[in-house]
Amino acid sequence: MMDSFVIQVIKVAVALFIITDSIGNLPIFMGLTDGLAKGERRKLFNTALLTGLVLLAAFGFAGALVFSLFDLTIEDLKIAGGVLLFLIAVEVLLRGKVVFEHKEDIGVVPMGCPLMVGPGAITTVLVMLKIYDFYAVLAGTAVCFFIIWLILFFSESIYRFLGRNGALIITKISAILIAAIAVRFIRQGVMAILGL
Asked: How far apart, in whole angstroms, are the C-alpha atoms of residue 37 and residue 101?
């Protein structure tokens, strides 16, 4: 029974880690926090992690109820998230950065959601809860987010290695990647709704 539980935890952690794509998103996170002090950047990373965890927990406990209450589908989330990301990408490309009234907002949107925890991660957790033990899903999610925290914690070393010019290039490339992810979200949502 214990082996089965451990295997479930590993499967959940691996699936979520792949879906959240923290390594692939790292250049985007670094680009979005360009110019911030080390402490501020880590604070935003922690905010993003907390946002992602709270979002997954909310949908894990009441996802079906929320979808039913507002008559929503995963496709609706994909399209909404895609539009939001696209607007952010355009602002980064035109201004060189996203202007937020409060810096903490970057950690919530877009870092925490939809980049770290988007429709894919939410769907994964909802599916995992149906096929695996609740505590295995909980433990797997915790393991996944601990690994993500480690990656973000050591991102400063990568940032220093790249230098100012490298960071500037990453910011612009990140904006294009964000736009591409946005288009993918919208495309997947529209195709699913149209049954294509």
From this structure: 18
Q: How far is C-alpha 128 from the chain's CA centre? A: 18
Q: Which two tokens stand for residue 36?
A: 């911030």
The 10s digit of each residue's pLDDT in 24-67 is 777 778 778 877 888 888 899 999 999 999 989 888 888 778 77
Neighbouring residues of 141: CB distance < 8 A, sequence distance ≥ 6: 12, 13, 16, 53, 56, 125
pLDDT tens sequence across 140-195: 999 999 999 998 888 877 667 766 666 667 667 767 877 887 788 789 889 988 88
Please provide the DSSP assignment of the chain as one string. Answer: -HHHHHHHHHHHHHHHHHHHTHHHHHHHHHHHTTT--HHHHHHHHHHHHHHHHHHHHHHHHHHHHHHHHTT--HHHHHHHHHHHHHHHHHHHHHHSS---SSTHHHIIIIIIIIIIS-HHHHHHHHHHHHHS-HHHHHHHHHHHHHHHHHHHHTHHHHHHHHHHHHHHHHHHHHHHHHHHHHHHHHHHHHHHHHT-
Residues 6+ apart with CB under 8 A from 158: 26, 30
> How far apart, in Å, are the Cα atoms of 119 and each of 19, 31, 92, 94?
10, 22, 23, 27
Give this prediction's pTM: 0.69
